[in-house]
Amino acid sequence: MTPSPPHPPGHAALRRGRCSETQGIYLVTSVTDGRRALFADPALASAATDALLDRRLWPRSRLLAWVLMPDHWHGLVELGAWETLPDLMRRLKSNTARQVRFVLPLACNVWAPAYHDRALRHEDCLLTAARYLVANPLRAGLVRRVGDYPHWGALWIEGVPPTARAAPPHTLYRPTSSVGAA
What we know:
Layout: H1 10-15, E1 25-31, H2 42-52, E2 62-68, E3 72-78, H3 85-103, E4 116-120, H4 123-134, H5 136-139, E5 152-154
Antiparallel strand pairs: 1-3, 1-4, 2-3, 2-5
Helix pairs in contact: 2-3
């Protein structure tokens, strides 16, 4: 009997040996299960956005900038004390999936099981990463101006510098929608 070839190691093997740094800043991307454009539906996008910005989700860490695209989410996060990136991502995905299912009961998963992260090593990379992140709707052709896209935010838009460590996460700027405005 010949042994079967080993299974590919998968996403869990990629994380083996990695550790999160307290107060480290990470550019994180999570895609929807099957890259379905769930958040093209405004009600689902709004539910996910509300869940992402829920202050209970961020007791230790901070969301510096973010954008929710139709089939994925990018976030620029700063880990707080005693927080690991896997724990934060598990909480974030669980909370958003619960809120999305409340709006539209789904028989399938909201998020793919894995996520991609990149640690930012230098403060000067922070603004470049934030600009890349919030410009996603422009590059995707969803809007002509960043401000026209309703599902994004950045901590320092209203004058809070990205290095201000004391700003609580609930002060995150969230653009107001111009829909229905007179």
